[in-house]
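Q: What does the assembly look like in three dimensions?
Context provided by user:
Components: two
Sequences:
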Amino acid sequence: MYSLEGVWPLPQIFTSSIERYPLNPQAFYFGYGRQSAAQFGCSVLDAAFIRYYSLIFPDYTGNGVLRFLEDKPFHIEINVDHDDCESYPHEDSSEKYNLSVSAGKASLNAETVWGAVRGLETFSQLVYQDDFGSYFVNQTEIDDFPRFPFRGILLDTSRHFIPVHAILKTLDAMAYSKFNVFHWHIVDDPSFPYQSQTFPDLSRKGAFHPMTHIYTQSDVRRVISHARLRGIRVLPEFDSPGHTKSWGKGQSDLLTPCYSGSTPSGAFGPVNPALPSTYQFMATLLKEVSSVFPDSYIHLGGDEVNFSCWKSNPDVRAFMQKMGFGVDFTKLEAFYMENIVNITTFLNKTAIVWQDVFDYHELIPKDTVLHIWKGSPANYRKELSRMTKAGMRVLLAAPWYINHISYGQDWRNYYTVQPLNFSGTAEQKKLVIGGEVCMWGEYVDATNLTPRLWPRASAAAERLWSDEKQTSSVDKAFPRLQDFRCKLVRRGIRAEPLYVGHCKHEYQGV
Amino acid sequence: MYSLEGVWPLPQIFTSSIERYPLNPQAFYFGYGRQSAAQFGCSVLDAAFIRYYSLIFPDYTGNGVLRFLEDKPFHIEINVDHDDCESYPHEDSSEKYNLSVSAGKASLNAETVWGAVRGLETFSQLVYQDDFGSYFVNQTEIDDFPRFPFRGILLDTSRHFIPVHAILKTLDAMAYSKFNVFHWHIVDDPSFPYQSQTFPDLSRKGAFHPMTHIYTQSDVRRVISHARLRGIRVLPEFDSPGHTKSWGKGQSDLLTPCYSGSTPSGAFGPVNPALPSTYQFMATLLKEVSSVFPDSYIHLGGDEVNFSCWKSNPDVRAFMQKMGFGVDFTKLEAFYMENIVNITTFLNKTAIVWQDVFDYHELIPKDTVLHIWKGSPANYRKELSRMTKAGMRVLLAAPWYINHISYGQDWRNYYTVQPLNFSGTAEQKKLVIGGEVCMWGEYVDATNLTPRLWPRASAAAERLWSDEKQTSSVDKAFPRLQDFRCKLVRRGIRAEPLYVGHCKHEYQGV
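A: Here is the predicted structure of the complete assembly.
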């Protein structure tokens, strides 16, 4: 019945005994310790208590259940060092917690409310039911903290529009696997669903539909608030100068007109880096974005810029000449990206860019994070080595392009990634801030997002949270992940099966 | 707005004009023609009218809508030649229909109620809405009939248990693509969820769980009834002698004890063909199955029999000697399958068996259908040729193992199959009764079934229903299938996207 398999991702230090304590839904209490800096009224924790009550007691409906006098109460007491109840999680937020479960009582101590939220998730996974539906938790002692501070999931809401409710559901599931960054890839060629206050034409003309396929300011606030309560940062990506075709519809003179010989072909390329108006547009847009999204990071993209349209355009070529770039278009791209990064620096935001940017940029600020997305393990190991050697911080996504599907248990590939297995010093390894699971949207929308994402992303979650030595066996992980997947199903997440078998409670939706 | 793309699978003969007629949900009437053999009270059609009313008018809730006097009524008049309202669809059921849409009226004529149901599906796909939500249908003339009489989908409820509601939802979606056979692969090694009246221990001990992971007699009746109303046959598969490990738990002395040298190893192999009790068990079970499932066909499996356990068992070897089979275990398997087929013949059922059986069996009745599941196109074409040359009827599944997934638009592979492109006479080609999409269950349960099945299975549906010449271009099919996929989404089916883009109405569930 009970097993150490009960928590995913695996806590760093975990001891427990066979001594078990019954839990009664009607005599179960969350409370703040007297010394706790946070007390009742703490928005993050008060909301977490309500959520986790239902997650701990999934069968309990509160209707018509008698309370028996002999039921012993169980208290879970939360203590946090900082009253950061109304803040947002950020890159340095501690997620450490200590959880101690004994007779009638559990103590959960953390430096921050975010650590407390992680500890509540762990506690909820420790509780189990016997065949008669009674709830139990075993004597347990846990000291836990994440291996990496950045554990993200990318959703692409440009290639397909993903309704807000599906994003919120994804945030719920992210919290169950202790992910802490939602990377919102909101702009790309096919559509631009973000309804800008300053440039409403971008979505009016660039979204799939100006009314039904957009994220209003209120939608965005809802996503940020839902994420915050779960200790999840929202990292918006406003990718440029490529991947911006959808912007061209609502903003004239922004994209580069491509030429065929000496006449415009009618097609448009990347953002036009030769026009001052481009930088004014980007500064205005990024200023809005900076105020809408509270996170101190912003993702600026910079990937896969195709130079052929720039090359064809006489104004761009004239600009190249004027700037002394010769025929080296990488210098033009460098010039563009440096301007954009400077804008974000001015706005007090730290930039994350795709790895492409690193190749061209000597002048990029040292605090910029490079996002590694290309290639095979041999390839990304080389890049990890090269970029950290240059003193840059990096974020690893390459091995976790989870939109790529194949038949069978591909979660094993996601699990066996070794993010620090590259040639470099201990100082270099510290520059790896974490990893990201990317769900690009070519073939994904709300109809199939959840079963493609879960529990495959959870394999990466354990790699990013847990101690690698304790989680080196994929075969030992298998039954634990099966068990965790059944927990997700029980919580209403359509997480797909890993292999033949069953869950005690199968998915009940349609 | 309106296009010929509107019906999937493409009708055989289809003409329409730009003349369009408004439809008002409050002045829309289904009715039986005076000459129709079926009249009000016809269970199949009365139920179809209710279903299709909601499918035709998805926005209409019936609440608070005023009826305007100027609204012109629209009548759809159904005429069928046979009063087969209370029957089950069978292998020879005509699905032909003629649909004529003109001002204020549509006439739907069919030989059977099953043809009328197909015609209602077509009509429902012809109706469209403008940007203000008003409903229209264009002047249309359709003569339609299926290319193949057998168009099936296999679900595997042994490797994972699929709750009844998910099976019913699959039947709904099957009707939208005009599939007409639900092949229920109900037994296999991992579990046996069918609750038998005569052998209740089979599921009590062989299901994943004896109470929650079974199909009761009432569940089975519900599935059959739901399928019947949609013109879908339910073809049960009781696979043997292999793929039966789950039976061993509830029926002692049924499976062959495997030996390691001269002692039993504790493992069990296929059904034991050396014991008379085996045939008594199978006869009793198949008798029950024959009465529970009304279809005149039964699938007997017969695939992938591993001889090593039989070879190890001294009793089986003694039986081989007694029967004069020498060391040719294919003769033993032939002996077993012939006995089982004879049982079904006695029960007035026609057998379908997997292709493996054909290789060993001279004595198999000529009306047995061979189910081709192995190999590459080169391979299955050879088998189609060889088996039809022997005068056997065949059913093609090999190119439609849809559980195998890959990144990208693999529906194109399912679409471009040419089931009759093999070396053989016209007589041989007539022996191809149809095809089947197989969703084996290793990695599939209710969490991911729907988006894996739809619209990928619909690609096969058009191949099996429509004229191959008119549907030879996969590129022309692409926008039509995208459009159809959005219709499925609108109807609440989580059909996954084919590529970048959007539906006017995205999936609204979570």
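Follow-up: Chain B has a mean pLDDT of 95.
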